[in-house]
TrEMBL record:
Its EC number is 1.1.1.88. Belongs to the HMG-CoA reductase family. Coiled coil: none annotated. This is 3-hydroxy-3-methylglutaryl coenzyme A reductase. The keyword Cell cycle does not apply.
Length: 440
């Protein structure tokens, strides 16, 4: 029977490790050794990681890879990607190279508007609340002056504050729906600080508003928080080429390839079961760059999937068409990204990733990330409609299986060259490995 622990966060790192290893693992000595193996030798660097979160016991590594040859608006990028899935960087690189000779990616920003809301309860006359809101609105903005000063200097700030009556959905529920421009910052802290100030002012001013009855004066603030649903913080990335240029080594004609791509996207548009997987493949590319650049991939995921459902049914984030003899493939995706603040100036690898990307503005990073997502989807669909996904996937996964089996360097070399000529499946790799060992 496990026992709860009081004051875990107050224990030293060593004590935390001992406690977790002894109480929750079979071989505590081994656990402790492995956890420590992942500590950095550089104590300053380790301290930085320790302080990112509470109760740090070790570091959890992900590979950082590079997908080169991304031509985006005629600028050549090498894109850093942090991801564990074997085939993602390879697929992105392959797709980037494919489009490199076909004009590259053309991207544009559709909008950069961020959203935050103050959710509150008000029981009373809605028209009166509206009059109160119009009166108090300048005060709401005046009170955040110290918070928004620097952002305004740079050209950002509050775009709008709107009172929304949501009482038809939930009794007494109202909100301040606020929109912001946060420039190169993701803006979470800025937005949440503004919202909490709006909430405070709203509550205080309501108590003083003479038109309100005593009960109307008692506006109940429920919460103030940014929204990760940002349909107007949107970027578009596109690739296109004459259909004839699509011809590769596949055993299908360029026209058939184009038509199958369009059909594959059409299926993802109408069939949510497929759309979820289709979009998951897009997020393979998106998240990997988001993570490498120190951004919040959960926020990006939540916003992207909300956008995928914006028309009432979960659907594809990418689109494809054949117009005349031109094949066009594009994505529209909301991305709230930052290139300043947060981890961007703190995590040494994030700093390097941003440097590799030529120190992008948030708008530029949105375009790079969208291109990575589109490339990933192109790569996945290309495999799916031609060879099937397993061929490429297993080729990349081969090393993982061999590592699991404990293959030596020379065994790996032999088996990698063997599977260049044979189809790799998990069982085929195990059999080939066992045969190789038997031969010795
Ligand atoms: C696997 O991580 C992603 C794919 O399933 C995406 C897709 O099916 O489009 C290959």
């Amino acid at each position: 029977m496990k026992k709860p622990i009081e004051g875990f966060s107050k224990l030293s790192k060593e004590e935390k490790i001992n406690w977790i290893a002894h109480n929750y693992t079979h071989d505590s000595a081994d656990t402790i050794e492995i956890l420590k193996q992942y500590w950095s030798n550089d104590s300053k660097l380790q301290q930085l990681h320790d302080e990112f979160i509470e109760n740090t016991i070790s570091n959890f590594y992900l590979p950082l890879g590079i997908a080169p040859n991304f031509l985006i608006n005629d600028i050549l990028y090498a894109i850093p990607m942090a991801i564990e899935e074997s085939s993602v960087v390879a697929a992105a690189s392959k797709a980037a190279k494919f489009w490199l000779n076909r004009g590259g990616f053309k991207t544009s920003i559709i909008g950069t508007e961020k959203v935050g809301q103050v959710h509150f309860m008000y029981q009373g006359d809605t028209a009166k609340l509206m009059r109160f809101f119009n009166k108090v609105k300048p005060e709401l903005i005046a009170k955040v002056a110290p918070i928004i000063k620097n952002m305004e200097k740079r050209g950002g700030g509050i775009n709008n504050i709107e009172l929304r009556d949501k009482s038809a959905d939930l009794a007494n529920y109202h909100q301040l729906h606020c929109t912001f421009e946060t420039l190169d910052a993701m803006g979470a802290n800025f937005i949440n600080s503004c919202l909490e100030s709006f909430a405070e002012t709203l509550k205080e001013e309501a108590l003083r508003y003479s038109e309100f009855t005593e009960s109307e004066k008692r506006i109940e603030i429920v919460m103030s928080i940014l929204s990760n649903n940002i349909p107007n913080c949107l970027v578009r990335a596109e690739v296109s080429c004459p259909i004839g240029d699509l011809k590769e080594h596949h055993n299908i004609s360029a026209m058939e390839f184009a038509q199958k791509m369009v059909r594959a996207v059409a299926i993802a548009k109408v069939e949510p079961y497929r759309a979820v997987t289709h979009n998951k493949g897009i997020m393979n590319g998106v998240d990997a760059v988001v993570l490498a650049t120190g951004n919040d991939f959960r926020a990006i995921e939540a916003g992207a999937h909300a956008y995928a459902s914006k028309d009432g049914k979960y659907s594809s984030l990418t689109h494809a068409s054949i117009e005349g003899d031109i094949f066009k493939f594009w994505i529209e995706i909301p991305l709230a990204l930052g290139t300043v603040g947060g981890l961007t100036s703190l995590h040494p690898l994030v700093k390097i990733a941003l440097e590799i990307l030529q120190r992008p503005t948030a708008k530029e990073l949105m375009q790079i990330v969208a291109a990575a997502g589109l490339a990933q989807n192109f790569g996945a669909l290309r495999s799916l409609i031609t060879t099937g996904i397993q061929q490429g996937h297993m080729k990349m996964h081969l090393l993982n299986i061999l590592n699991q089996l404990g293959a030596t360097t020379s065994e790996k070399e032999t088996l990698i060259s063997h599977f260049k000529k044979h189809t790799a499946s998990h069982s085929a790799v195990v059999t080939a490995f066992e045969n190789l060992r038997k031969q010795k």
